[in-house]
Write a structure and sequence with these properties.
The chain is mostly helical. The chain folds into two domains: 147 residues, no CATH class; 140 residues, no CATH class. Helix content is 59%, strand content 0%. It is built from 16 helices and no strands. Helix 2 crosses helix 14 and helix 9 runs antiparallel to helix 10.
C-alpha cells in the first residue's frame, strides 16, 4: 500500500450515528442465529456476525450480504446439562457442555429486560476474564451491543445472547471477591486504552493473529464501557494488564519500531478493499484501530490499521 506522511482523520472515515444500511444486520443475525460458533478443523471462533457489524461501522453495510456469502451456515445444537444458571452460574462458567443452558438463560433475560441492564449485570461478572476465548466472548458481545445501541430488535438481542453465552463458556476462573488494585491516579479506561496502544505496537512489530487481538480486545470493551459501572472498568483494566503484560513491558522498555516511519493513508478505497477479503480480521482491526485513533489521535493506531491493508502481508499473517 502507498504510504504518505499526511495524517488521516478517522472522523472522515468512521460512521457515527446514522450508519448506512443498518438494517442489513438483522438479516445477518437471522442467518446465523443457529449456526455453529466454532469453525470446523481449527475449532476457532466463527467471525461472521462480528465482521458484518464492523463493516457496517465502517460505512460498508452495502457490502455485507456479499461478504457473508463466503461464510457458510453450519447446523448446530448447543449442548445442555439442565443446570440452573440463575442459581448456579459460577458452576456453569467455563463449561462448553452448558452452552445451551447459557443461551436459553440469556435469551430469557433479554426477552424481558432492557438489554443495557442485562449487559451491565453480566459483564460485571465476566470482566475479570476479558481475554477468554482469545477475547472473542467479549468481542462478539460488544459488536452485538453496539448494534443494539443503534437499533433495538429481537434479532439483535439474540445475537447479544450468543455473545454472552460464548463468553460464559470460555471463562476459566470465578470472579474475584475483591476489586483489584489499580495504578494510582490512572483512570481504568485510560489503562485499557494504554493496553490497546501496547497491542498496536506489538502487532506492528509482529503481525500475528494473537497480537491483532491485543488491539481488538480492549477496543471491544470500549464499545460497551459507557453502559458499565466504574467498578467494572477497574476489573477489566486488571484483566487487560494480565493479557497485555508482555506488550506493555515491550513498549515501555524498548524504542518500538512502530513509532517511527510514515503514517499510511487510509481512504474509502482502502475500506472497500477490506470487503473483498473473506476473513474478518482485517475488517475488525481496521475499525478498532480507527476508533482508537479517533479517541486518542495517536498515529500508532493508524500504523496498525495500515498493516492489514497490504494483501500480501495479510496472506502471510493468516497462512
Amino acid at each position: 500500500m502507498r504510504e504518505t506522511s499526511r495524517s488521516t482523520s478517522a472522523g472522515d472515515i468512521l460512521v457515527q450515528d446514522n450508519r448506512p444500511d443498518e438494517d442489513v444486520l438483522d438479516e445477518v443475525y437471522r442467518k446465523y442465529r443457529s449456526s455453529h460458533p466454532f469453525l470446523p478443523v481449527t475449532h476457532f471462533i466463527d467471525h461472521s456476525t462480528m465482521g458484518a457489524e464492523a463493516l457496517v461501522a465502517l460505512g460498508l453495510g452495502h457490502r455485507v450480504m456479499d461478504w457473508i456469502s463466503h461464510h457458510p451456515v453450519r447446523a448446530y445444537e448447543a449442548p445442555s446439562t439442565g443446570i440452573s444458571i440463575p442459581s448456579a452460574w459460577k458452576e456453569a462458567m467455563g463449561r462448553k457442555e452448558c452452552h445451551g443452558d447459557w443461551l436459553r438463560h440469556f435469551e430469557s433475560e433479554l426477552n424481558g429486560n432492557p438489554f443495557r441492564d442485562v449487559l451491565a449485570s453480566w459483564v460485571g461478572r465476566f470482566a475479570h476474564d476479558a481475554g477468554a476465548v482469545l477475547f472473542h466472548g467479549l468481542i462478539r458481545t460488544a459488536h452485538a451491543a453496539r448494534a443494539l445501541q443503534h437499533k433495538d430488535t429481537p434479532l439483535r438481542r439474540g445475537e447479544l445472547a450468543r455473545g454472552l453465552a460464548l463468553w460464559a463458556i470460555g471463562i476459566k476462573s470465578p470472579p474475584p471477591n475483591n476489586l483489584p488494585n489499580r495504578e494510582a491516579g490512572l483512570d481504568p479506561t485510560t489503562e485499557i486504552m494504554r493496553c490497546a496502544r501496547a497491542g498496536a505496537a506489538t502487532f506492528i512489530t509482529k503481525s500475528t493473529i494473537p497480537n491483532l487481538h491485543l488491539v481488538t480486545g480492549p477496543m471491544a470493551y470500549m464499545m460497551i464501557a459507557q453502559d458499565l459501572a466504574p467498578s467494572v472498568h477497574g476489573v477489566a483494566a486488571a484483566a487487560f494488564r494480565r493479557t497485555h503484560a508482555k506488550a506493555i513491558v515491550r513498549i515501555e522498555s524498548e524504542k518500538d519500531e512502530g513509532l517511527s516511519g510514515p503514517v499510511p493513508g487510509l481512504d474509502q478505497s482502502h475500506l472497500e478493499a477490506l470487503a473483498e477479503k473473506s476473513n474478518a480480521h482485517p475488517v475488525k482491526l481496521t475499525e478498532a484501530a480507527l476508533r482508537a485513533y479517533q479517541a486518542t489521535q495517536d498515529k500508532l493506531f493508524l500504523k496498525a490499521a495500515g498493516k492489514v491493508q497490504n494483501y500480501g502481508l495479510w496472506r502471510a499473517i493468516v497462512g
